[in-house]
Amino acid sequence: MIIRTLRAHMRPLTAWAVLAFLIVYYLSIHPRGLSIGVLTAWSNQGTALALLAVGQTIVVLSRGIDLSIGPIMALTNCMASHLVNGGPVEVAIGMILVIATGAACGLLNGLVIVIGRMQAIIATLATGTIFSGIALIIRPIPGGDISEGLSDFFSGDFGGLVPMSLIVILGAIAAWYPIRKSVLGRTIVAVGSSESAAYASGLRVKRAKIGAYVLAGVFASLSGLFVGFQTLSGDPSIGLSYTLNSIAAVVIGGTALTGGAGSIAGSIAGALILRTIGNLLFFNDIEPLAQPLFEGLVLLVAVSFGAARLLRMTSRMEAFQ
Predict the structure, then answer these.
(1) For residue 241, what are the CA distances in angstroms to 73, 237, 247, 296?
(2) What are the tens digits of pLDDT across the range 302-313?
(3) N or C: which end of the chain has fewer CB within 10 A?
(4) Average of pLDDT values for 281-307?
């Protein structure tokens, strides 16, 4: 048991160690070197994916998967391009509506899976298509308007010392901690470890599974908002790549695809690793048309590592060890 616990803690630590190495290398080859501007740009590029990876991790911890998380992000991003502008009151109301929409999408996913008894991969693939269609209706082509004040605040730095986007990432970790210690959070992990054992223990399994998808929708909406703060617009076509990258970030961060074991912090490190690799390809003069090839190989390797453990299993009980 001690060895298993150590392994569970070592996986996210390994991801953070790899990220630290990549950051040092990135800063060493960047023309401007170490500066608050470079760190802010780097952090901004990874924050949206990091927030999405947090939501995906929560679902994976419950032994589920959410293929609609990217479309939810795209939908809320398009909504933000209509609603998050104007005076302070309008902006605040707009942000609340955007986050509520993300939660509602997650609730729909949870109800379809739990009450409708559909497999998560099929249910979220279907709902993701619906959400993408709604996003296209709301914003047929990229555009719109989002508060420049909020954009400058969240994509800038704090006192010239720390990127605000990095503070957002730390806030996501801090927000998950009390949830993880709550009854809901503990039940989500218990359900992912063994749903039958959780049910036999009197835990509210259905509520926990629905809650996991609602939380994923909330973090997806936060990701959609941040993309809007970066671009000052909405884009209905951004969902697919973010969905795949969120799963890869979860795997790189050490979260078991079989559920019940994982780390939010590790998934965030995985997201930042993926974005840093993209930057390294650019600054190493890799042909732009070839960059998707390398990024696809990274995704393939990441997901393969996650699946390799499943292929080595001789008993289903090993998934929860």
Answers:
(1) 11, 9, 10, 10
(2) 667 656 655 554
(3) N
(4) 72
Q: What Rg do the C-alpha atoms of the chain give, in angstroms?
A: 19
Q: Give pLDDT, residue 301.
A: 74
Flag whether 171 is in a domain: yes
Beta carbons within 8 Å of 185's beta carbon, 6+ residues apart: 176, 179
Domain that holds residue 286: 11-25+35-303
The per-residue pLDDT for 310 is: 53
What's the number of domains the chain is made of?
1
Q: Is residue 232 part of a domain?
A: yes
Whole-angstrom distance, CA of residue 142 vs CA of residue 205: 40
State pTM to two decimals. Answer: 0.89
Q: Which long-range contacts (CB under 8 A, 24 or more apart) does 237-242 make?
A: 237/74, 237/142, 238/70, 238/73, 238/74, 238/77, 239/70, 239/71, 239/72, 239/73, 239/74, 239/128, 239/131, 239/132, 239/135, 240/70, 241/70, 242/48, 242/49, 242/52, 242/69, 242/70, 242/73, 242/74
Task: Indicate which CATH number applies to the domain containing 142.
Answer: 1.10.3470
Give the confidence band of 3 by pLDDT, cuts at 50, 70, 90: very low
